[in-house]
C-alpha cells in the first residue's frame, strides 16, 4: 500500500497516498492537502497536474500525492493527479475480491477505491482508450519500485494475489506447455504475461484454456485475473517478476494478420509502416517518440505559463504573400476566384498581438510550406512560436536559453553550460555555415595567399581558396578519396571542383594537382592549417575548394558536416550556441535586387538604421547593414531563430522599398501591419523553435517523421488516407475552379535525401 493507506503504520517518505485538497491557488500553483494519517496540513506544488485543471477550483477534491517530507512539524508533497469521484483512502480490498470494469472508448475501465500504493503495491484501477480501431489500451506508469502492469492507472500496481482487470492486445508471443498456455499481452505501458492453466481447471477454466490457444496476433482482449509471482522471472521487462493467472477472458475484437510484425525491430519498409501507421504506433520506438513529444510540449507550456506568457491562437486561413516558400492555397467558395493561404508562420499576427498589448505571447502552432521534402522537412510542421514586448536581444536570448536548458535537463537529463555567442561572420569564416556543429574541429583555413600564381587556373581565378584538414584520412585509398571528390562536387555540396593533398605518415606529400605545386607549397598549406585546433599532421588529408567567397564557404560548410557524419564525429553529445548579427540583406544577381536574409520585418541594429534609410535600394553598401537577428543552433541544426522587429512605419516602408516592393504593393500586402504601427506599436521581438526538430535531437534520431503521429512521405502524400486526392466536378464548380491537369496515379516516392533545412526561410520565416 506504500504506507498510510489503512496499513496501520505511519506514512513513509516516498509513499503514494490519496488526500483531500484543503485549499489551492491556481495563480501561485500550490496549496494544502489533508490526510487522516498525517496530523498537519501538507503543502503541495501542482507538478504533474494537467494545465486545464490549474484554472479549476480543486478545493475539496481528492488528489493523489507523493510524500516528500514529514518532519520538524512540516509536511510536503508532490501532487500527482486528481482522483475520480469515489476514490479515497479506504483500505485495500481483501484477496479474492474483484475490481469491476466497464467498457469505455473501445477499452475498459475497472476501478476500486482502496487499491493504491507504490512499487509492487498498486491500485486496481484500469482505464481504456480507443486507438482508432477499437483497441483497448490500459494506462500505467511506474512510481518507484520495479513492476509496471499494462492496463493500470499511473502510479498504481497490484500486489501479489490482488485481482486485476486488463485490456489490451495480444502481442503474438505465445508459449505452449503441456498444462498451461502463456500469452504475452501488450498495451501502451508494456508487456505482461497471462497464463491459462489446464491442469486442475474446472469446466470454465478448460474453456478459457481452449479460447486462449486460439488467440491470434493483435487480438484485443479483456482479461480478469490475479497477480502472482513468476517462478522464472524475466529481468528484461518491468513486469517480469509477476504474471496474471486468468479468471476470465473476453475477446473484444479479432485481428487480421498484420502486414508486418508489431515488434521494436522490424524490417518493414517505411512506406508500408506509413500506410498502416496506426499499427506502427503500437511499436515501442514510435510510441516512445510520441510520448517524448508530449513531454516536450507539456514542459514548454508549463514553463512559459509560469513566465506569464499567454497562449493565443492565430488564424489558419490568411492572405498569401508574394515571396518566400510557396503557399498552400485554399479557394474561397463565397468569394469566387479568391484564395486563402495556409500560414508559413504566424509572423504578422503575433506582431499585431504586441500592438494590442499582449506583451508575452506563445503558441504551439501548425505551419505549412509547399516545397521539396526530405528527412527534416514536412509540408506541415509545428513551431513553438513566441513574442515579447519591450525587450532587447539580450532579454530574448536569456529567456529562451533558460527554457531550452530546462527542457534538455527534464527530458533527457542533459545539463548545458551557458550558450556561447558567435557572430555570423565568424561562423562563416571558421565553419562555412551559419549553423555550425561545434562538437568537432575540422575548421576552415584560408590559403588564398599561398595558392595563387602557380598557373593553376581554378585557384588563380578564385576569390578565395579554402582548405579543411580531415584527420586520419591521409591513409585512405585513391578510390575512397575519389568518392570524396564526387560528394564534394555533387548536388548536396555543390563545389565546382575539389583538390586534395595527402600528408603521408613518413612526411611525404601527394596531391591531385601535383603538376602545379611543389613541396614548398604543400608545407605552406600545412603551416596555415597548423594554426587551427588539431592542425594538419602526418596521416591527414587536406581538402581544398576554391571559387566565389560565399559560395565556396557554403560548399565547404556542407562538406564539413557531411564528413563529420561519415567519420562518426556527429553522433554523440550536445553542443549549443547562438549565432547573432546576420546580414540584413542578400544581393540576388538574377533579380538584380536585395532580398531579406531573414524576413522583411527584422529590424537593423540601431547603429545601422541611418545607412539603411539613406542609401539607394541597389547600393552595395547595404550588404554591410546588420540585422538584429539570432539563431539557436544545437549540433549543427538550427532549432530556432528570430529577431527584434521593426515597429516604425517609416522604417518598415523603407525596407519594403529596398526589397523591390512598390508603395502600392507594400500597401496591398502589408498595409494592415503598417497601419497598426500608426497607433503606438511597442518595441518587440521574438523567435520560434521547430518542435519536430527539437524532438528529433532530444530523441537521438535523424528524421522528424519519427516524431509526428501521421506524417507525409517525401512526395507530400499521406498513403494511409490516400491524400491529396481529386475532388468531384461538382466541388470544383462550387469553387469556380477548372483544372488543366489530367487525373493520373501518383508516382512512387523516392527515398528522402538527408540534409539540413533552416527553420526559418523566406519572407515569412518561422520566427
Automatic annotation (TrEMBL):
GO terms for biological process: aspartyl-tRNA aminoacylation. This is Aminoacyl-transfer RNA synthetases class-II family profile domain-containing protein. One of its GO terms (cellular component) is cytoplasm. Residues 744-757 have a biased composition (Low complexity). Residues 744-767 are annotated as: Disordered. Pfam families: GAD (PF02938), tRNA-synt_2 (PF00152). PROSITE patterns: AA_TRNA_LIGASE_II. One of its GO terms (molecular function) is aspartate-tRNA ligase activity. It comes from the Eukaryota. Residues 758-767 have a biased composition (Basic and acidic residues). The chain crosses the membrane at residues 125-144. Belongs to the class-II aminoacyl-tRNA synthetase family. Type 1 subfamily. Keywords: Aminoacyl-tRNA synthetase, ATP-binding, Ligase, Membrane, Nucleotide-binding, Protein biosynthesis, Transmembrane, Transmembrane helix.
Amino acid at each position: 500500500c506504500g504506507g498510510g493507506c489503512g496499513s496501520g503504520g505511519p506514512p513513509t517518505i516516498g509513499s503514494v497516498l490519496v488526500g483531500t485538497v484543503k485549499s489551492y491557488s491556481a495563480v501561485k500553483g500550490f496549496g494544502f492537502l489533508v490526510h487522516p494519517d498525517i496530523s498537519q496540513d501538507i503543502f503541495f506544488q501542482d507538478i504533474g497536474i494537467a494545465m486545464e485543471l490549474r484554472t479549476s477550483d480543486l478545493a475539496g477534491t481528492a488528489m493523489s500525492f507523493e510524500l516528500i517530507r514529514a518532519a520538524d512539524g512540516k509536511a510536503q508533497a508532490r501532487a500527482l493527479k486528481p482522483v475520480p469521484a469515489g476514490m479515497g483512502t479506504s483500505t485495500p480490498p481483501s484477496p479474492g475480491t474483484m475490481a469491476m470494469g466497464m467498457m469505455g472508448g473501445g477499452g475498459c475501465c475497472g476501478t476500486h477505491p482502496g487499491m493504491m500504493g507504490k512499487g509492487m503495491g498498486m491500485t486496481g484501477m484500469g482505464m481504456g482508450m480507443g486507438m482508432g480501431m477499437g483497441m483497448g489500451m490500459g494506462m500505467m506508469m511506474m512510481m518507484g519500485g520495479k513492476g509496471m502492469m499494462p492496463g493500470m492507472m499511473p502510479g498504481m500496481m497490484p500486489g501479489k494475489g490482488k485481482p486485476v482487470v486488463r485490456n489490451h492486445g495480444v502481442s503474438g508471443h505465445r508459449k505452449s506447455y503441456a498444462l498451461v498456455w502463456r500469452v504475452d499481452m501488450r498495451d501502451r505501458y508494456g508487456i505482461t504475461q497471462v497464463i491459462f492453466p489446464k491442469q486442475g481447471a474446472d469446466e470454465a477454466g478448460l474453456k478459457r484454456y481452449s479460447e486462449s490457444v486460439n488467440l491470434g496476433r493483435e487480438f484485443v482482449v479483456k482479461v480478469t485475473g490475479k497477480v502472482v509471482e513468476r517462478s522464472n522471472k524475466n529481468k528484461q521487462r518491468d513486469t517480469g517478476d509477476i504474471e496474471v493467472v486468468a479468471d476470465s477472458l473476453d475477446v473484444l475484437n479479432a485481428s487480421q494478420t498484420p502486414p508486418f510484425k508489431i515488434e521494436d525491430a522490424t524490417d518493414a519498409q517505411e512506406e508500408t509502416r506509413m500506410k498502416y501507421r496506426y499499427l506502427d504506433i503500437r511499436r515501442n520506438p514510435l510510441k516512445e517518440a510520441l510520448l517524448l513529444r508530449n513531454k516536450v510540449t507539456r514542459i514548454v507550456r508549463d514553463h512559459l505559463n509560469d513566465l506569464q506568457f499567454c497562449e493565443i491562437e492565430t488564424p489558419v486561413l490568411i492572405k498569401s504573400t508574394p515571396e518566400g516558400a510557396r503557399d498552400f492555397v485554399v479557394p474561397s467558395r463565397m468569394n469566387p476566384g479568391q484564395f486563402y493561404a495556409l500560414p508559413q508562420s504566424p509572423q504578422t499576427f503575433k506582431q499585431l498581438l504586441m500592438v494590442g498589448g499582449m506583451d508575452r505571447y506563445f503558441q504551439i502552432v501548425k505551419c505549412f510550406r509547399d516545397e521539396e521534402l526530405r528527412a527534416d522537412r514536412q509540408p506541415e510542421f509545428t513551431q513553438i512560436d513566441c513574442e515579447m514586448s519591450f525587450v532587447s536581444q539580450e532579454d530574448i536570448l536569456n529567456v529562451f536559453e533558460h527554457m531550452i536548458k530546462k527542457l534538455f535537463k527534464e527530458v533527457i537529463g542533459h545539463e548545458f553550460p551557458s550558450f556561447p555567442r558567435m557572430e555570423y561572420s565568424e561562423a562563416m569564416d571558421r565553419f562555412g555555415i551559419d549553423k555550425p556543429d561545434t562538437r568537432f574541429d575540422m575548421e576552415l583555413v584560408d590559403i588564398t595567399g599561398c595558392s595563387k600564381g602557380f598557373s593553376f587556373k581554378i585557384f588563380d581565378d578564385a576569390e578565395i581558396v579554402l582548405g579543411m584538414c580531415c584527420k586520419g584520412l591521409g591513409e585512405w585509398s585513391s578510390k575512397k578519396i575519389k568518392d570524396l571528390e564526387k560528394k564534394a562536387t555533387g548536388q548536396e555540396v555543390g563545389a565546382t571542383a575539389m583538390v586534395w593533398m595527402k600528408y603521408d605518415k613518413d612526411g611525404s606529400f601527394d596531391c591531385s594537382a601535383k603538376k602545379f605545386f611543389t613541396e614548398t607549397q604543400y608545407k605552406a598549406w600545412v603551416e596555415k592549417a597548423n594554426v587551427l585546433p588539431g592542425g594538419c599532421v602526418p596521416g591527414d588529408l587536406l581538402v581544398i575548394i576554391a571559387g566565389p567567397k560565399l559560395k565556396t564557404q557554403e560548399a565547404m560548410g556542407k562538406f564539413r558536416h557531411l564528413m563529420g557524419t561519415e567519420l562518426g564525429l556527429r553522433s554523440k553529445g550536445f553542443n549549443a550556441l547562438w549565432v547573432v548579427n546576420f546580414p540584413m540583406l542578400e544581393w540576388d544577381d538574377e533579380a538584380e535586387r536585395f532580398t531579406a536574409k531573414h524576413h522583411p520585418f527584422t529590424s537593423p541594429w540601431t547603429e545601422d538604421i541611418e545607412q539603411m534609410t539613406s542609401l539607394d535600394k541597389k547600393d552595395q553598401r547595404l550588404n554591410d547593414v546588420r540585422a538584429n537577428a539570432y539563431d539557436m543552433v544545437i549540433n549543427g541544426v538550427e532549432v530556432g531563430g528570430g529577431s527584434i522587429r521593426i515597429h516604425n512605419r517609416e522604417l518598415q516602408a523603407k525596407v519594403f522599398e529596398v526589397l523591390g516592393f512598390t508603395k502600392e504593393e507594400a500597401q496591398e500586402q502589408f498595409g494592415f501591419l503598417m497601419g497598426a504601427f500608426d497607433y503606438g506599436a511597442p518595441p518587440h521581438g521574438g523567435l520560434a523553435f521547430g518542435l519536430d526538430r527539437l524532438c528529433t535531437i532530444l530523441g537521438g534520431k535523424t528524421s522528424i517523421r519519427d516524431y509526428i503521429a501521421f506524417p507525409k512521405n517525401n512526395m507530400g502524400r499521406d498513403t494511409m488516407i490516400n491524400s491529396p486526392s481529386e475532388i468531384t466536378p461538382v466541388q470544383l464548380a462550387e469553387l469556380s475552379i477548372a483544372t488543366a491537369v489530367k487525373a493520373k496515379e501518383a508516382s512512387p516516392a523516392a527515398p528522402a535525401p538527408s540534409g539540413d533545412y533552416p527553420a526559418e526561410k523566406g519572407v515569412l520565416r518561422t520566427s
